[in-house]
TrEMBL record:
<dbReference type="Pfam" id="PF03080">
    <property type="entry name" value="Neprosin"/>
</dbReference>
<feature type="domain" description="Neprosin PEP catalytic">
    <location>
        <begin position="1"/>
        <end position="212"/>
    </location>
</feature>
<dbReference type="InterPro" id="IPR053168">
    <property type="entry name" value="Glutamic_endopeptidase"/>
</dbReference>
<protein>
    <recommendedName>
        <fullName>Neprosin PEP catalytic domain-containing protein</fullName>
    </recommendedName>
</protein>
<dbReference type="InterPro" id="IPR004314">
    <property type="entry name" value="Neprosin"/>
</dbReference>
Length: 213
């Protein structure tokens, strides 16, 4: 999930999980935090000055063990502190108090001083020089059940009054760059299940050759 002001590519912050051999030197899944701000400066995690680690329990970057807890489920929240203007990242815990991981100081951004005009959630992949695009999510197209492919659930956004609203309460735009290799399916289920999943969507796919932009 990321926050962005005025749809500007130089003002954004985001947490999540990814596989990045160029950054970590292996094929494991890692948690991460990324930011871009003034003068195009920015980086992953704490590779440059910017992100302030606060939690002594949960680091911004660490290998993510899919075998512990509920496989593949992460619960993150990003919000701007009303008093300081800093952007906090919090991990929402299921059976324990939420943990503030750390924050990006407002001073490192040029367009995120007073909230964001756009938030986004989803998956991104990068093709190799040979033109091979890697799998996204768990590698399955979202053509089956709700948990057969990658999924985002219970997506909520804070409005200008800091009130939580379902993401589809706002104008939304669906982006799918390559329907040849990846898919996107907005979830629709019986009302009983909505209390559990909230607003959700499935995404991902196997990747392949010549997947396009």
């Amino acid at each position: 999930m990321f926050a962005e002001k005025h749809f500007h590519p130089l003002s954004a912050d985001s947490p999540g999980t990814h596989i990045n051999p160029g950054l970590y030197g292996d094929q494991r899944v890692w948690t991460f935090g990324f930011w871009k701000g003034k003068d195009g400066k920015g980086c992953y995690n704490t590779a440059c000055s910017g992100f302030v680690q606060v939690s002594k329990v949960i680091p911004i970057v660490e290998p993510y063990d899919l075998k512990t807890g509920v496989p593949g489920w992460m619960r993150y929240s990003i919000h701007q502190d009303k008093n300081t203007g800093n952007w906090w990242i919090t991990q929402l815990m299921k059976d324990a108090p939420n943990e503030d991981i750390g924050y990006w100081p407002k001073e490192i951004f040029n367009l995120l001083d007073n909230g964001a005009n756009m938030v986004g959630v989803g998956g991104v992949v990068q093709a190799s020089r040979s033109g091979l695009s890697p799998p996204m999510g768990n590698g399955n197209l979202p053509n089956g059940g709700r948990q057969d492919s990658g999924i985002f659930t219970n997506i909520e956004v804070l409005n200008s009054n800091y009130k939580q609203r379902k993401m589809n309460s706002f104008r939304t735009e669906n982006l799918l760059d390559s329907d040849k290799c990846y898919g996107l399916r907005i979830g629709t289920v019986k009302p009983f299940y909505r209390t559990h999943l909230g607003f959700f969507f499935n995404y991902g796919g196997p990747g392949g050759i010549s997947c396009g932009v």
